[in-house]
Write a structure and sequence with these properties.
alpha+beta, Butyryl-CoA Dehydrogenase, subunit A, domain 2, single chain, 394 residues, Butyryl-CoA Dehydrogenase, subunit A, domain 3, Butyryl-Coa Dehydrogenase, subunit A, domain 1, 3-stranded mixed β-sheet, 9 strands, 4-stranded antiparallel β-sheet
């Protein structure tokens, strides 16, 4: 009987045995991050979410865990594989999207920009401290009137003597109010360029956007740049044009395709456990056909999404991944994860709208995840262009 119970539990947790696709060291890292989430995030997330608070002390703890800039090499960065990075993001988002978003903004956006396009001195100055969580970064691309079309940004940088002066505004900038350094993208006479701005620089101000209905245990800000004066050394020398920030966005989008599955998996597991113990009409609600259909639909989408993520990750590690393939995973996995979380909530009945259960919190968070780093519409058009060779953005 025990053996049979173990088989049932294994099927419920990993129907297709996708774990068999991972190497031992990949599973070991995943389990380390999962243990961190179980010990540090789950006991506290309800209070953080209700209070709309991101605990800054997590930065150093996540640095010690090795999940900040974990896919980058050198400069104190862990240098882990794309698949290992994805597994870590999945486990972090099983705790909360806001926690995974911190790792994404810090590592996939800000640190990636410095690592890809910074000078040697810039890398030495910022990356080791950021990898340890001693320094926090933010990434300023989106503006109040330039979201899906960043080419229409209004922030400008002009040469002034031996340096630069920046003016403009950014919106929905994660971590800006607690960041030490900001990567800001601005128009110049030569094209769009990236700049490193210590947030203590006069003229740089940030204000937290609130109240929010999702991503409450995370920080998003408005940023104003009013005559921000910088030295020549503030310029990221390695790139000109939108290909710079878009390369960083693709790193974040890749992590999201994994992370969303963490929220979905957690919601499914909560719903399954509830359905097995909740009794109505003298039997567990898991015995009803409609309940089983909902659980099966959740398993189908979670496992399919995980196969997409694993295959995409293997291609990324092999250096064969194309940007439009990342759009496939981001679009599919986030969209299906929201559906899973919403369906899981229905199995909880009225209890599901409380913070005692995770699916509604995950669903609210994923509404934001669905929007940032490319909306459904943007990724649909990216895929459409890849399929037809006809751009339909205009």
């Amino acid at each position: 009987m025990t053996g049979s119970t173990d088989v049932i539990a294994a099927i419920a947790a990993d129907y297709l045995n996708v774990d068999s696709l991972f190497a031992a060291e990949e599973l070991e890292l995943r389990d380390q991050v999962r243990a961190f989430v179980d010990a540090r995030i789950r006991p506290n997330i309800n209070a953080w979410y209700e209070a709309a608070r991101f605990p800054r002390e997590l930065a150093r703890e996540m640095g010690e865990l090795g999940v900040l800039g974990m896919h980058l090499d050198g400069y104190g960065c862990p240098g882990r594989s794309a698949v290992e990075y994805g597994l870590a993001m999945l486990e972090l988002e099983a705790g909360d999207s806001g926690v995974r978003t911190f790792a994404s903004v810090q590592g996939s956006l800000t640190m990636s920009a410095i690592h890809k396009f910074g000078s040697e001195s810039q890398k030495q100055q910022w990356l080791p401290g950021m990898a340890m969580g001693e320094l926090i970064g933010c990434f300023g691309l989106t503006e109040p009137d330039a979201g899906s079309d960043p080419s229409r940004m209004q922030t400008v940088a002009r040469v002034d003597g031996n340096g630069w002066v920046l003016d403009g505004a950014k919106r929905w900038i994660g971590l800006a109010s607690i960041a030490d350094i900001a990567v800001i993208w601005a128009k110049t006479e030569d094209g769009i360029r990236g700049f490193l701005i210590p947030t203590s620089t006069p003229g740089f101000t940030s204000s937290v956007i609130e109240p929010k209905l999702g991503m409450r245990a995370s920080i998003q800000c408005d940023v104003t740049l009013n005559g921000v004066r910088l030295g020549r050394e503030s310029l990221l020398p390695g790139v000109i044009g939108l290909k710079g920030p878009l390369a960083c966005l693709n790193e974040a989008r890749y992590g999201i395709m994994w992370g969303a599955l963490g929220a979905a998996r957690d919601s499914y597991q909560v719903a399954l456990a509830y359905a097995l113990r909740r009794r109505q009409f003298d039997r567990p609600i898991a015995s009803f056909q409609l309940t089983q259909q909902k659980l099966v639909d959740m398993v189908l989408e979670i496992q399919k999404g995980l196969l997409v993520a694993v295959h995409t990750g293997r291609q990324k590690d092999a250096g064969t991944l194309r940007p439009e393939q990342i759009s496939f995973g981001k679009l599919n996995n986030v969209r299906e994860a929201i559906a899973v979380c919403r369906e899981a909530r229905t199995l909880l009945g009225g209890n599901g709208i409380t913070l005692d259960y995770t699916p509604m919190r995950h669903a609210n968070n994923l509404e934001a995840v669905r929007t940032y780093e490319g909306t459904d519409e943007v990724h649909t058009l990216i895929m459409g262009r890849a399929i037809t060779a006809i751009p339909a953005f205009a």
